[in-house]
Design a protein that fits this description.
Elements: E1 2-6, E2 9-13, H1 18-34, E3 51-56, E4 59-63, E5 66-70, H2 84-93, E6 102-108, E7 114-117, E8 129-135, E9 138-142, E10 152-156, E11 161-164, E12 173-178, E13 191-197
Antiparallel strand pairs: 1-2, 2-11, 3-6, 4-5, 6-13, 7-12, 8-11, 8-13, 9-10, 9-12
Bound molecules: succinic acid (SIN) and manganese (II) ion.
């Protein structure tokens, strides 16, 4: 495993072997069966190109009323619990002494991207954000805590872990594009990113 610092954001390359990635993929599939993926719309009413669902106490959600966490899937059902395999990743990488409230699962198909943003819908920014990439490679852009700060870009590959914490907790970040079909982990190609966060104070 190689450790890279990108504007204060820590990247752990190849944190997971292929069998570990396959097991994680299967755990995420089970979540998506219980809580189907949906396409949120931005506060400007534009559908996001990324499909998402969540596990845990809260799921992240967006519509014309804005970005927020909600305690039920939009269909009304409970969010499934965060699997042990994923809680272990949080324990191994977060250096936090409490468990996350939300595991957001983002699914990128061909052409999907995510604009530059801060993760700032949580109550306490002293907790880090831990994310894992699975499937196709993605061009990850990281800036500073001001939108106008200079950015650096790095390719995220399947099995990489990113920790956004400390002084970089409010770093602007986004996914410019994915290299569709670059991995065979997900049937039909595409990329899954999971993001673990503490939501409540
Ligand atoms: C996110 O910022 O929510 C997702 C980042 C990623 O897909 O790697
Ligand atoms: Mn984010």
């Amino acid at each position: 495993m190689q450790r890279v610092n990108v504007n204060g954001v820590e990247l752990f390359k190849s944190a997971f072997s292929l069998p570990e990635q396959t097991a994680l993929r299967d755990d995420l599939r089970a979540i998506a069966r219980a809580a189907p993926m949906f396409s949120p719309v931005t506060r400007w009413g534009k559908p996001m190109s990324v499909r998402m669902t969540s596990a845990g106490k809260y799921g992240w959600y967006s519509d014309r009323r804005g970005y927020r966490y909600i305690d039920r899937h939009p269909s009304g059902g409970d969010w499934p619990p965060i699997p042990e395999s994923i809680l272990k990743i949080w324990s191994d990488y977060s250096e936090a002494d409490r468990m996350p409230d939300c595991c957001l699962i983002n699914h990128y198909t061909e052409g999907a991207k995510m604009g530059l943003h801060q993760d700032c819908d949580e109550a306490d920014f002293s907790w880090p954000v831990v994310s894992v990439s699975l499937g196709d490679e993605a061009l990850f852009r990281v800036g500073g805590s001001e939108r106008s700060d200079p950015t650096q870009s790095v390719w995220l590959a399947s099995g990489d872990v990113v920790v956004i914490g400390g002084a970089a907790r409010l770093a602007f970040h986004g996914i410019d594009r994915i290299k569709f079909g670059s991995s065979r982990l997900l049937e039909g190609g595409g990329r899954i990113n999971i993001t673990l966060r503490v939501v409540d104070a």
